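Quick one: structure for this chain?
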Amino acid sequence: MGLIREKVIATEGQREARGLKMADRPRFGPAGVPPTFKAMKATLIDVPRLLREEGLDAFEYQAVRWGAKPQIKREDAEKLGLKAKENDVLLSLHASYFINFCGDKETIEASKARLIACATAAQWMQAQTVVFHPGFYGKKTPKEVFEGCLEALKDVVEKLKTLGIREVKLGPETMGKPSQFGSLEEVLALCEKVEQTQPVIDWAHLHARERGMFKDVNDFRRVVETVEKRLGADAAKNMHCHFTKVEFTEKGEKCHHTMDEAGYGPDFTLLARVIAEFKLKPVIISESPVLDVDAIKMRDILQKELKAVA
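Got it. Here's what it folds into:
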């Protein structure tokens, strides 16, 4: 794997000029507040400390029901950011499910406002990436949908610049159903054409979209190599990822499953092997039904693979 295998990557000065934030190590954490934390009646501000105590070091804040304005007070967002920094927990934010850059003009404008609201809050809490679902094809052709998404995303980035929001990356996510815009090719093409973006590789979504894509370690390698070829070594080395086991039908993703449930894929051990082999430093967010429990299991699997190649 050319650039990554040979460690031919950008210099620190080049990274800084591009605004790239480099991960210091593979990081793991949950998508949202784990059920056990809620049972303890933990507050949002408690979450980074509780994650650190579990040996986790990432957290994806869920803003999935937000409208056109941030639905968290700036003071609370800033407190979360400070606590995350104190506990060495890297933050990201999952934007509203109601974003759809493939709809009519009114829907697209409302979607822009929602994504800007999420990016604003992400800056308050010093989250690095805002993950979002671009939308659905509907009756439009893939080409029409791509052009619409591209225009809308460029508009959002320009607006963020006027607001002084330059450190937050917008992360279009690979999606789990063929009816959704978000193939690997589409996501990478968006990121090639729009600055201040970062692909979000949801391995379960790709597995379900292609109805069982990841059968062996080479299938995972090909995705990483494709990201590197299209966006460069840094983009591949520092991917933002989602992972869970997934059930799917002919229509794509059906539901998520835990790491312990047999009969479902993809197999995280195969991905861990690729991470260790290529010395990648991704953020891996667990979307399993048992969020932090499976994040810990994934972390431990990777540690075993890292020792095997040391």
